[in-house]
Amino acid sequence: MDERHRVDGRQDGELTDVGQRSDAEQLSAILVDGRRAGLTAYRDRGEQRVFFHTETDDAFAGRGLAGELVRQALADVRASGKRIVPVCPYVASYLERHDGFAGITDPVTPDVLAWLEEQLT
């Protein structure tokens, strides 16, 4: 099931959407005119959503799309009742700059890292 969230990210008439995917890929993607401009990948671990990678296509760099993507992905975590674990450096940096998610953020622990490594291999 895909949930789509429209954002005000127009540049030169482009249409920007943030899509939350809940399939086996476990990622949130930001689309510009239907083209994937970036993604943040995660794995669910019980009541935690472990974010481990965020990227944007170089063609879309400097537009604030990664920040909007992560903001929406974290808002989706809040809405789901889960907690955030920021293994991804970009997500961790975002959380340092935006304290609105502090109450639902868990630390990255050795147990989480070992679990994530198992999930990704």
UniProtKB/TrEMBL annotation:
Superkingdom field: Bacteria
Residue intervals of the N-acetyltransferase domain: 20-106
Biased composition (Basic and acidic residues): 1-13
GO molecular function, one term: transferase activity
Region (Disordered): 1-21
Keyword Zinc-finger carried by entry: no
Pfam families assigned: Acetyltransf_CG
Keywords of this entry: Transferase
InterPro entries in UniProt: Acyl_CoA_acyltransferase, Gcn5-rel_NAT, GNAT_YJDJ
The UniProt record lists the keyword Transferase: yes
Protein name according to UniProt: GNAT family acetyltransferase
